[in-house]
Design brief:
Low-confidence stretches: 58-71
Radius of gyration: 38 Å
Number of strands: 31
Helix content: 40-55%
Shape: elongated
Number of helices: 44
């Protein structure tokens, strides 16, 4: 008898045992017993509301083949686990309260089975409940839900009629097992879930993500979202009392009491909307998107490991870090300019099994995606791009196809996109062949390769100079203490010393001193030592006298050479030679340092090389555009050379036309047509190699074939659950995952406790917890299997003014972003003052009936600010962002009712939008107005919501490119205990203070370095150089502001020429590479674009060649004045 049989026997002998009792009886861990109860014995036992296990009456024994199927591959277990998760992670259920046929999709119960323990009798006592269950057996798209309490919602039909729908506030799921469909369902041993539709109705929201965020927040307040120990679930009546207090403003028609349900008039006969103390069992229809995902997960359950193991999914499931392939020498088509990080991301994506790209706001993720797709197509690879966000998919389609005259990307989805696909194919099939196109392509390709070689040569040269600078730094560190062994003059003159002469002298003297030592003499010399001793002593003395002046050059004293030489005095000579040897080592190091410093000073300046690099990149970009167009011109030629492909595409287009002509009305015929279409997808992929789709729309549109695509690119992966991507990973050979963990994250209504139970149930809790549904995003899972070399961080920010992005940089990105925004492209209302402006006012927060909050005074002030911007002729785009739905709704309503002309002008001329953060994810505006709402009487629950959603604030403020205007109560925010808001208010204050500082005027300059506002950032070397230049008659302005930069020393001539003089004091004794190097290179290029010349001095040059530094500035002046 195996263990599962022993456990069922124990329960038959003594029903109602708890898990820990069974574990003690059989000497097992509770998790092991749980796994057997939930897996092997599923359907044969059930658990009551007191968490006791009972043998199930009339249970269907498992067939051996079913058990074997359940215990198949890890993919099988994961798919069954995700199917359970999807079943419980409902996006809301509702049914009509009444209909004219009397066949209702719900049944009212007289008691709450979760509390009474009679759940196994529900289906035996009530025929109507059994009828509902029979419907779910006949229709796989239906499932059963237990709901309590019930919200009766009034609805209005298009014909003017009225009616009601029933929406339970909490839903309780039933355990379902497709392998045991003859067994009546039992309520799952889970916490109740909030019903999305009911909460949405009661809160009055329109944005799904907003409601989900508030649902998660509410579930936490009710104690339903935490991982709880067995038997420690919160009692339902306590949960209801808490909800009643939190949302007293809801329309509670009957007081909630799950132990004493209300009777009386049935729900179908009531005519007053509100919340009723009723329990129902109801039918729920699965979402069509979820149904598609479920269908594919069911299919994948039976795929053997030998098949899925060859796909990206198989690589991920093996759990080992995926290997890294280094091919940084690959040529790319760079129609869109790429920085080094973006270029690396594209190359990694084209060559490695998995690449993870982190892309904070404004770092050019879309450029990477576009470049990745066109380069994959150019190199003969097929790509599937997927995102949860429809807008992101549309943007990629527009960008990729907008780069050429032939489309290479098809957008799968609705009929609109299928029409586009048909147009794309018609364009390709009707294009004429240009027989010179191949020759033109080959010529352009060769020109492109040569330009790329020049680009790499410049990058190599820059790296050589950076390496030389770092070498000088290391050498300087090694000789630091030697500076104290010499006078400054001697130390400086050592650069001119003839080292060979010194070393020759050392060898001669060492040899003579050695020969004068009897103990080191050979045997025959010892025999005649008294005859040769004086001669050798004299040689030593004479040679030291001869070398005396040379030795003094390295500051060694040989005064002992005046004494008569004997064996005792010889010891002084030997000691001196030891000192000489050590001093000579130091001199060698100093000489090497000076020689390297001289080589560094004589090198072509990095500033010039970087400027040349910028120009070469522009050249590569132009040639890449020609190369891409000439490659596209080859597509008709390739098609003409393969008649079978041409015929296949013609057939595909004809079939697609049939589908578009409403053939779906005949489902059988439509199915046959789609089946024929799928057979032709492999040919379509050769000529339209890039496909784009939302992640939940693949079922029925893209073949579920292993490794169908060479590359899968998933955007917004931080928002994406793992389950929905499993079928996509199966379709791909390699994957690129793009996301930002500091922006919007994956949200699920499935609680941690529910998820833990499901992981345990499917035997995944020990080794595959990182594949969990509720908390882990696809981005999290990708980081776990990706090789560290293949994680690419995009850190160059190009979107927002530094004042705006710097707060997020500091508080969300640990200061890693390098700000490279072109200020001249920003549309600011005014260039005076900071890019963030705070309009301070004190309002009153009001709790709305639907549960959200608003601040009317703040909203009215915001509208006045909008009016002012429009009246003053502002020309940029405008958006309004707020954390709260109620505020967004009130602002829109205020504009529509009281300022309709302003609203019309904002929408037509300023691309205006006013909403919560979720609406703006992936979007941006020139100017954003932010309404925090926080002020007097702000509810604690709203502040708790803000504390939990710091990432939303990061998204909100980084939507602004040129200006951010905050309309709110600064004092209340400083005292609100929401850390990031408090810090933001302080940050804006520091910007205002900084704006009050004025640059130093030239007539205020003197021989001593002047007082500046940031003395802690000024190195001694800047002060030394300033004073040396002033002494030479050159007046420079310290800490001169240019955009977001502070120049160490600015030199502005009478004819308007400008020189930025930089001293690398900040990087002294630090390697100048990686991030430090990139920041300075960006800075130099930006200043050069604005007409500044840049002259950089290393500290070593200022320290050891101050005159040479001054002369280089003089040379610049003479050159510019010539």
């Amino acid at each position: 008898m195996d263990l599962s049989q022993e456990i069922i026997k124990a329960l038959q002998e003594k029903p109602g045992q708890k898990t820990h009792e069974l574990a003690r009886k059989f000497g097992l861990d509770r998790s092991a017993v749980h796994s057997i109860l939930y897996s092997d014995l599923r359907g044969m036992v059930y658990q009551d509301n007191e968490y006791r296990w009972w043998p199930r009456e009339g249970a269907v024994e498992e067939r051996p083949e079913q058990t074997a199927k359940q215990k198949n591959t890890i993919l099988n277990r994961l798919c069954r686990y995700y199917l359970d998760c999807l079943n419980q992670d409902q996006y809301g259920v509702s049914v009509y309260a009444a209909n004219k046929y009397g066949d209702l999709d719900y049944v009212e119960l007289a008691e709450m089975p979760v509390l009474t323990g009679n759940q196994h009798k529900i289906f035996m006592r009530d025929k109507n409940v059994s009828k509902l269950w029979e419907k779910t057996r006949r229709n796989k798209n239906l499932t059963l839900i237990l709901g309590y309490p019930v919200y009766l919602k009034k609805i209005y039909y298009r014909n003017g009629g009225e009616g009601f729908v029933v929406e339970p506030l909490f839903i309780f799921n039933f355990d379902e097992d497709p392998l045991k469909n003859r067994t009546k369902p039992v309520l799952a041993n889970d916490l109740p879930q909030l019903n999305f539709k009911a909460i949405k109705s009661l809160l009055g929201g329109s944005q799904e993500l907003n409601i989900i965020v508030e649902m998660v927040s509410l579930a936490e307040d009710l104690g339903l979202s935490n991982e709880l120990p067995e038997g420690d679930f919160p009692e339902l009546d306590k949960v209801m009392r808490c909800l009643r207090v939190l949302h007293n403003e809801w329309d509670w028609r009957e007081e909630p009491d799950p132990y004493n349900l209300s009777g009386g008039i049935p729900l179908k006969d009531l005519n007053q909307p509100g919340i009723y103390n009723r329990t129902i069992i109801m039918l729920a229809e699965r979402s069509p998107y979820t149904r598609g995902l479920e269908a594919e997960l069911v299919k994948l359950q039976s795929v053997p490991e030998s098949v899925y193991g060859q796909t990206a999914l198989g690589s991920w499931l093996r759990g080992n870090q995926l290997e890294s392939v280094d091919d940084q020498a690959m040529d790319l088509i760079e129609i869109l300019p790429l920085n080094q990080e973006q270029r690396r991301a594209v190359i990694q994506g084209l060559t490695n099994p998995l690449t993870v790209i982190t892309g904070p706001p404004g770092t050019g993720k879309s450029q990477v995606v576009t470049s990745l797709l066109i380069n994959a197509a150019w190199k003969g690879q097929s790509v599937l791009f997927a995102s949860k966000n429809n807008k992101a998919v549309d943007v990629v389609e527009q960008r990729v196809n907008g780069l050429g005259h032939y489309p290479i990307l098809i957008r799968h989805g609705s009929a609109e996109y299928q029409n586009k696909m048909a147009n794309h194919l018609s364009t390709l099939l009707s294009s004429a062949t240009n027989y010179d196109s191949l020759k033109e392509y080959e010529n352009t390709k060769e020109i492109h390769q040569q330009a790329y070689m020049r680009l790499r040569a410049l990058e190599d040269k820059i790296q050589q100079i950076v390496a030389l600078r770092n070498r000088v730094d290391h050498l300087e560190q090694q000789i630091e203490l030697l500076r104290y062994e010499f006078t400054p003059a001697t130390f400086s003159n050592l650069r001119y010393l003839n080292l060979d002469e010194i070393e020759d002298s050392f060898r001669v003297l060492l040899e003579l001193v050695t020969k004068a030592d009897q103990h080191q003499a050979r045997i025959w010399e010892r025999l005649i030592w008294k005859f040769i001793k004086n001669n050798r002593f004299n040689q030593v003395k004479d040679s030291f006298a001869e070398k005396k002046d040379l030795i003094k050059k390295i500051e060694l004293d040989v005064s002992f050479e005046t004494k008569a030489l004997d064996e005792e005095i010889l010891k002084d000579y030997k000691t001196f030679m030891d000192i000489f040897a050590r001093r000579l080592d130091g001199v060698r190091a100093i000489k090497e340092y000076y020689d390297s410093l001289s080589k560094l000073s004589a090198s072509v300046s990095l500033e010039k090389l970087e400027w040349d690099l910028v120009k070469t990149q522009e050249e590569v970009q132009k040639i890449s555009e020609n190369l891409w167009h000439s490659w596209l011109d080859l597509l008709p030629k390739r098609l003409s050379s393969l008649p079978a492909d041409r015929e296949a595409l013609n057939q595909f287009n004809s079939l697609l036309g049939m589908v578009l002509d409403n053939l779906e009305e005949d489902n059988k015929l439509a199915g046959r047509v789609r089946s024929q279409l799928s057979k032709l997808f492999s040919v379509l992929k050769k000529y339209l190699p890039c496909w784009a789709i939302t992640s939940l729309s693949t079922h029925g549109r893209i073949p579920l074939e292993p490794g169908f695509f060479d590359l899968l690119v998933i955007d917004e992966a931080s928002q994406c659950d793992i389950a929905s991507v499993i079928p996509l990973l199966y379709r791909a050979k390699r994957v690129v995952v793009i996301g930002d963990p500091n922006q919007l994250s994956h949200i699920s209504s499935l609680s941690v406790n529910q998820d833990t139970q499901l992981l345990t149930k499917h035997g995944l809790i020990d080794s595959y917890a990182t594949w969990g549904y509720s908390k882990n995003s696809l981005f999290d899972r990708a980081l776990g299997v990706c090789h560290s070399d293949n994680i690419v961080n995009l850190l160059e920010h190009h979107r927002s003014h530094a004042d705006i992005i710097e707060f997020s940089n500091t508080h969300f990105y640990e200061g890693q972003l390098r700000i490279a925004t072109h200020y001249r492209k920003l549309r600011r209302p005014t260039t005076a003052g900071p890019a963030i402006r705070w309009v301070d006012l004190c309002g009153t927060v009001k709790r709305l009936r639907e549960g959200s909050i608003c601040n009317k005074k703040e909203a009215q002030a915001l509208v006045m600010e909008l009016k002012r911007l429009v009246s003053q002729g502002y020309e940029g785009t405008i958006g309004v962002v707020t954390p709260f739905r109620g505020q967004a709704h009130y602002i829109r309503e205020l504009l529509h009712k009281d300022y309709s002309e302003l609203e019309k002008e904002l929408i037509t001329k300023f691309d205006f939008e006013a909403d919560t953060v979720h609406k703006f994810q992936g979007d941006e505006r020139d100017l954003i107005l932010f309404s925090p709402v926080v002020s007097l009487n702000c509810p604690d629950s709203s502040l708790r919501f803000l504390r939990r959603t710091g990432n939303l604030f990061n998204v909100a403020i980084t939507r602004a490119r040129a200006a951010l205007i905050v309309i709110g109560d600064r004092q209340s925010i400083l005292q609100c205990d929401v850390n990031y808001l408090v810090e933001f208010a302080k940050y804006v204050g520091s910007l205002e203070k900084k704006a009050e500082e004025k640059p130093i005027k030239i007539d205020q300059l003197g021989p001593v370095y002047p007082d500046v506002f940031n003395p802690e950032q000024v190195s001694d070397w800047e002060r030394i150089l300033y004073q040396a230049l002033y002494k030479a008659g050159i007046k420079t302005i310290p800490q001169y502001p240019v955009e977001k930069y502070r120049l160490d020393l600015a030199l502005i001539t009478e004819n308007g020429r400008r020189l930025d003089i930089e001293v690398d004091g900040e990087r002294y004794h630090r390697d100048w590479n990686g991030d430090l190097c990139q920041r300075d290179r960006l800075r130099n290029c930006r200043l050069q674009e604005y007409g500044w010349d840049v002259l950089r001095f290393w500290v070593y040059e200022v320290r050891d060649d101050l005159e040479g530094c001054v002369q280089r500035v003089k040379d610049w002046l003479e050159k510019k004045n010539a």
